[in-house]
Amino acid sequence: MGKPYINNAVIGNGSMLGCVSETGELIRLYWPEIDFPQHIEKLLTGFFDRNVPNSTVWFSEGDYEYSQAYIEGTNILKTVARIKSLSLEVVQTDFCVPCDDVLVRRYSIKNIGRNGIHLGVGVASRVTSHTLDMGCTLFDFGLDALVHYRHDNYWAIVSDAGVKEFQIGNDPFRAVWEGRLDGTDSIGMSPDGALLWDLGYVEPGCERNITLYMIFSRNMNSLKELTRKIKSVGYTSLFNTTKEYWTDYLSKCRVLKTGNGTVDRIYLRSLLLFRLMTDRNTGAILASPEIDENFTRCGRYAYCWVRDGAFITSALNEAGLCSLSEKFYEWSVRVQDKEGFWHQRYHINGNVAPSWGLQIDETGSILFGMWNHFLHVKNVSFLEKVWPAVLKACEFLENFIDGDTGLPLPSFDIWEERMGEHTYSTAAVIAGFRAAANIAETLGVSKKTIDQWRSIADNIKKALERNLVDNAKGIFLRSIRTKLNPWGSEPCADTVIITVNPKGYTREVSAFDGKMDISLLGAAVPFGIYEPGHPVMRNTAEKVEKLLYCEKAGGIYRYQEDGYAGGNPWVVATLWLAMYHIRAGNIEKAREYFHWSVECATPLGFLPEQAGKNDGKPCWVIPLTWSHAMFVLVLKELAEKGGIGDMQRG
User: Quick check: keyword Nucleotide-binding in the entry (predicted)?
Assistant: First the structure.
């Protein structure tokens, strides 16, 4: 069964992450890490009149009137459906319990018709697996629960109402649809099963409630123990505990109130999202919940990029969430390659994820981020913890220099698309060496080491100015020695042959790439290699804005001729330019781009990766943690520069 590319809403607790469609279907559920494994192939809840044959309707798959919203200041989601065929209004409430591996789903079902209904409720579920192991399901009579299990993943679906019927395998979805289950077999080597409840006769204007608990554990005995505990605690207590948890969480965050309801809602949603995207057990930060499991349109998103982390942790620090930043950097130290660099992307558990190759800006960005984190917390013990990683990273970077150009050797660019020696990557490495020198100085390391790293940074900057500046135009080049066509001959006559690895393999590459790219702003923001007003920096920014502005929908493209996922303007790119304008003193221009980004938000306050180039509507990845981080950073800087300006109040 294929899954939608859009996650409309997310719920979670840091070790469990659920993705919910706009009609309330739980389409993805991750545990015990927020990226892996994903357990649900299909999970549907049906309602029917037990006196009317074949009257079942699925909550999330009908032509109903839907509305969806979070309870304010929480990650508790409510989805409401008005089911005309049964004259029911159903409110589905979803949340994950903060300190237990439990997802709670509550249904409040009101009869809004003129006649009574003998109400039946059924749930059918089919598990998926990341391996070819046999999916197994049983009904536990002691727990009154359906249990899916395989290897070290056990999860139960249990309710606060007594189960009337159950079924293992044999097309349980059809059985729920028909309103009758066959529980002759209580265990089977089948990945699916179903439960059915009889909620009795419901008079017009009256309602019934039923709560489902999806409970996860590593083995059967601990699952039984947790299930009994959760059933004894009950819905009301779990709901109140969860609501109080999110209220307490936000109380520790930095408050930013602009007076614009939409902006303030996006800010609060960003804070709440940051907690869901940070793994409770490891500290790694997820780029986004997965949207393309089968690699049909992209290379997948449910990974941790340390590139993103440098931006995201800056936002976490500004929002008062320094403890989450610190956990991320502690994770980064643990996963660093023994050679000293960081890989392109990682699984949340720290293992290397599928990658295209080394992306050297990630290593520079981590060093830069570590120093920036220290500037917020002023805790020398943090620097002492990361120092071994800093030392190894610098030792690697010292040897990762092209003897011909003086730049960092060819690696993938920020967008993971081109090998080459890039302006953004070079700026990141310069900033990394400068940050490392500052860390060394703070820790009282030898002056020789400090001077050496600062000298390397200065020499790389000189190499940047020799090789990555178009002196005739007074702008930065995106790259030199770059592979513009990954699969064949380069698209220009000006090419060179370079050695690409220690075994002596060579590759034809383009001598230079002069396309405008939003990442060129990285030399000023965030890395500070040049002031925004530096002539080359200013000229580059002006050309970036001129060539990358989307005339029809507004916003900024990543780079010229970007065709990824339809080739749309990006929220990250637009807010990046806004941040540059703030630093350059162009506050009104920054506000314009910020306002555009606000309009890209979904009704629930999530920011996408992209907005449609024709209509400006959110599209592709929703939500993108990096987009939310940039929103927080720009909002904070605008707040310090007189506010966000006039917007239509949300």
Answer: no
